[in-house]
Design brief:
There is one protein chain. This protein is an alpha/beta fold and 220 residues long. It has one domain: NAD(P)-binding Rossmann-like Domain (Rossmann fold). The protein contains nine helices and eight strands. Strands 3-2-1-4-5-6-7-8 form an eight-stranded mixed sheet, with helices on both faces. The radius of gyration is 16 Å and the shape is globular. The relative contact order is 0.13.
């Protein structure tokens, strides 16, 4: 059993936490806006889920997912994340975040990695809608299994994330280092489109080949 710590709430957090519990993992939830926002989710997920502070969630997690507005990244606990794999599900939204990463000439994941210099940041879960993340999960070996892109600078961290994704129902496609993670940010071919045909609320399966093609088609 892996323990997954969460910093930040929202639909993607709920979806990943739900898939994690279904796979037998323990989840420890936290939200900078207050634990009360996650009490209902924790109750829904059952005994494998709990709600605590951000620092405690980070300390408890074997893996830690960060899903906060990019402008709030300085609020993420740093020291407790030393040596840990961080699942970066954030996006640099120009309307919300003023393009702070792009303005600095880096990707949003590179910005987070600079802040968490002793951690191993892997970009994942940022390119898919929560409802599709839930509905497209499939067992290992299923013919209609979907893949998610991941980017990171540490090969072992990416291997750890790949194994975690496999456990919750997804294959992984290596999108390269964090400097290349712009290929899976908003307004790129791999952002939501491969999983959303527009004709089915439950989404469209997107295999590894489809994701690789979409990543390669990204242009700045």
């Amino acid at each position: 059993m892996t323990t997954v710590g969460f910093v930040g709430g929202g639909r993607i957090t709920a979806a990943v936490a739900g898939l994690s519990v279904a796979a037998g993992h323990r989840v420890v939830l936290s939200d900078p806006l207050g634990p009360q926002r996650l009490q209902d989710l924790s109750a829904e997920l059952g005994p494998l889920a709990s709600v605590t502070t951000g620092g405690q969630a980070v300390e408890a997690g074997d893996l830690v997912m960060v899903r906060v507005p990019l402008g709030d990244y300085p609020s993420v606990p740093v020291r407790p994340l030393d040596g840990k794999v961080v699942l970066d599900a954030c996006n640099d939204d120009p309307q919300r975040d003023s393009g702070i990463a792009e303005a600095g000439g880096v990707t949003s994941s590179e910005l987070l990695q600079r802040e968490l210099s002793q951690s191993h940041v892997v970009k994942v879960f940022n390119n898919i809608l929560a409802r599709h993340l839930r509905s497209l999960a499939r067992p290992h070996g299923a013919a209609d299994r979907s893949a998610l892109p991941i980017a990171g600078d540490d090969d072992q961290a990416k291997a750890t994330v790949t194994a975690f994704l496999d456990s919750i129902g997804y294959d992984a496609v290596d999108a390269g280092p964090l400097a290349e993670s712009w290929r899976q940010e908003p307004d790129t071919p791999v952002y939501r489109r491969p999983y959303d045909s527009g004709s089915d609320e439950s989404g469209t399966p997107a295999a590894a080949g489809t994701i690789r093609t979409a990543l390669a088609a990204a242009r700045r």
